[in-house]
Every structure is written in structure tokens, then in C-alpha cells.
Amino acid sequence: MKPFPVYHIDAFTDVSFGGNPAGVIPDTENLSEEDMQKIANELNLPESVFLLPSSHPEADFKVRYFTPLEEINFCGHATIGLSWLLGTKYNWLEKTDQIVFETNVGLIPVKWIKENNQLISVSMTQVAPKVHEIEINKDTLAHLVGIQTTDLDERYPIKLSNTGNWHLLVPVKTRKAIDLAEPHLKELGSMNREHNISTTHLFTFDSNGEFDIYTRDFAPGIGINEDPVTGAANGALAGYLFLEGFLSNKQTHHLKIGQGHAIGRPGTLYITIHSENNAPIIEVAGNAVITIEGNINI
Q1: Residue 285 backbone class (left: φ over 0; alpha: ψ -120 to 50; beta: rest)
Q2: Could you tell me the CATH number of the domain that includes residue 20?
Q3: pTM value surpassing 0.85
Q4: Residues 186 and 279 grouped into a single domain
Q5: For residue range 171-201, what is the model confidence (pLDDT) as tens digits?
Q6: DSSP strand E in 12-104: where?
Q7: How confident is the model over 225-244, as pLDDT tens digits?
Q8: Coil/strand/helix, residue 91
């Protein structure tokens, strides 16, 4: 029986038990895919990330992400948590200003943001966003996510967006409606699996000035009833806002997004969107806290 280091890291927060928890396993070269899935199931966190050597000439490491149910292509908060761990516990902060992860969807550069030589934030550049149409009845969708059809914000189209995984973006008029949403998880999970959707992401611009956007995210199709604070889905949301013309391609945009408050795990994401040759570049930043550290025996 061999012990492997394992960490429970809360991302997009600066306090323990806030934000989104991720399992981070930094030494997994000798683990099988079956072992990784079993560990993710045992930790029973929204996602767990496993660090591996990479043969890619432009990458420092390869990473794989697992929910308790299955492997997924990309996870934003787990990437933030892993990067925070490498920058602090593993001293990468002293070695370089940036690290590059090889993922199933491409290379993800991550940079450390420092102040007085202390790590204050981690920023990852996600893969290029894309959007796709989806045909879905609005009454059906409202029922699935547990709101009224009249709560849907008609100013914004319901679409799929992707910066690594497909997310169904649902515009809602008010934060109150999002907070009171009671999704029909079994039905929602079936619909998401049918359309190869990782999460259903509710968003609103109604935040009383506390944030630019307020969101909530459900992912029963991949084994997560509610994902507290989602780097991937909010990155996809930023890409959608750019590609659909709600954000100008003539300037750099900075968005402060709040999520997790409805379930007592408040978190904050800071997203920067700028364009190169009219193509959006999405950077998602946040901080993290190492809440639990120990070993898991295999």
C-alpha cells in the first residue's frame, strides 16, 4: 500500500469552506485511470485534478480531471487550485512566472499574480470559445431549472458555449429567481446527457452592483448536482457575451462574477476578455485556500 499526497483546495475564495472545493493529487504518474476515478469518487468533490508528466514540447505537465462519476475534458476551479498548490507548496512561484498544462482540449497557460513576492491570484487562459445553437422549449427549460418561464431574460439568447466543455447558458432576469431555483435534477441530467452538455449555467446582470454578473450552475449529468463556483462555465459565458456581440471587440473587458452564494459557498471570479484578430482571449482569475492536506492509500 502506497500513500499519495492529496489536497482539498477551495478555489475562487480566500477563506476555507468558501468557493469551490477541488481534490488535487500532484503525484500521479503511477496511478491508472481506474485509480484516478476511484480517488475522485472517494473524495466526492465536484472535481479532482491529477498531475502527470507531459510529452508535449510546450507543456510543463499534463492534467486530467474527474468528477465522482466520470472524466471530463476541463475544469477551471481545479486548475486554479492545482496552480495555487504548485505556486506555494511546490515553490514554482520562485521558478517561473507562468506554467502550461496539457489538457484533453489543448494547452492551458497559467500565470501567477504576485504582490510583494506573495501570491495573490492565479490566472488561466482558456481555449478559444465557441457557441452553438440549441433547440429547446422555453417552458420546458424553465421547468428543468426550477424557475418560471417569465423569469427568463428575453434580451439574451439561450445557447451552448464552450471553452473546454459545453455549457447551456440560461439568461435570467433577477438574482432572486436564480437563488430560488429548484431544478428537477434527474430530468435536467437526462437532457444534458442527451445533448452532451456538462453543465446548465444560469446568469443574470441583476446583482445590486456587487458583481457584474451573478451565476449558478447545475451539472447532474456528470454527477454534480450543483457546482459551487465554476471557472469553465463562467469562461464560456464570457466567450458567449463576446461572440454574440454583447461585449465590444474594440476594447478589453473586465468582469467580476459572483457564484456559490445560494448554497453557502460564496466565491468570486475575475475575467478579462480581449481580442486578437477579432478572436476573444479569455482569462479567468481567482485565489484559493488549501483547506485539507494528507495522504490517500492505494
Answers
A1: beta
A2: 3.10.310.10
A3: yes
A4: yes
A5: 999 999 999 999 999 999 999 999 999 999 9
A6: 20-25, 47-52, 61-66, 71-72, 98-103
A7: 999 999 999 999 999 999 99
A8: coil
